[in-house]
Amino acid sequence: MKIICIGRNYTDHIKELDNERPTEPVIFIKPDSAVLPKEQDFYIPEFSNDLHYEVEVLIKIKKVGKHIKAKFAHSYYDEIGLGIDFTARDVQTALKNKGLPWEKAKGFDGSAVIGNWLDKTKFKDLNNLEFSLSKNDKIVQKGNTKLMLWKIDELIAYVSTFFMLKKGDVLFTGTPSGVGKVEPNDYLAGELQGHQLFSVKIK
Ligand code: ZN
Fold first, then answer.
1. Which tens digits make up the pLDDT trace of 27-55?
2. CA 200 remoteness from chain centre
3. From ligand 1's centre to the CA of 58, what distance in Å?
4. Which pLDDT tens digit goes with each residue over 162-178?
């Protein structure tokens, strides 16, 4: 499987969205080795001094597809979830400044937390789901899928024009504001519409 991630997909200035919406989403890939095994602690990699959490809504792809139209995208997934795109922000900033790819900052071992999956039929409207991340029992990130610049089905359509989607692939749909640093002994937990879908200890 592969993990396809979307860069900036939320803005605080929703009213200005239509004017300020960039022309294309930012895409990057994490390898399958990035998945943090379930129930395993996250170890801050030694190459970073500024390791950030980014909570994101996840979609699990259920069948092969290429050049998927947005109006048919819903038939390519049944499950929705929540996870963390761990990011070595210092490494990413250095790479960005040189115009280099982000993989070292985003695709390292354990950088993808994938929580439990929920059947999408559990929810009336996937484009109006609240989610949050708490750090040491205090909420640090709050989002709603209605604030996405590109909705889930639009992302699937866009991504599938470049990458064939396969069963088991996971789409990370981007993070809302509030990203921040983790320290050893922090405890993170993520909720989607009141369902806690993951928790992870930082080492
Ligand atoms: Zn992200």
1. 999 999 999 999 899 999 999 999 999 99
2. 16
3. 11
4. 999 999 999 999 999 88
User: Residue 197 C-alpha to ligand 1 middle, in angstroms?
Assistant: 17
Give residue 120 CA to ligand 1 midpoint distance, Å.
22
Domain membership of residue 103 as a residue range? 3-201
Q: The domain spanning residue 168 has which CATH number?
A: 3.90.850.10
- The CA-atom distances, in angstroms, between 46 and each of 33, 61, 96, 202 are 18, 33, 20, 13
Cα-to-centroid distance, 84 and ligand 1 (Å):
8
Domains in the chain: how many in total? 1
Its pTM stands at 0.94
* Spatial distance between the Cα atoms of 58 and 106, rounded to a whole number of angstroms: 16
Residues that place a CB less than 5 A from ion ligand 1: 54, 85, 175
Contacts of 182 (CB under 8 A, 6+ apart): 42, 44, 51, 52, 53, 135, 188, 202
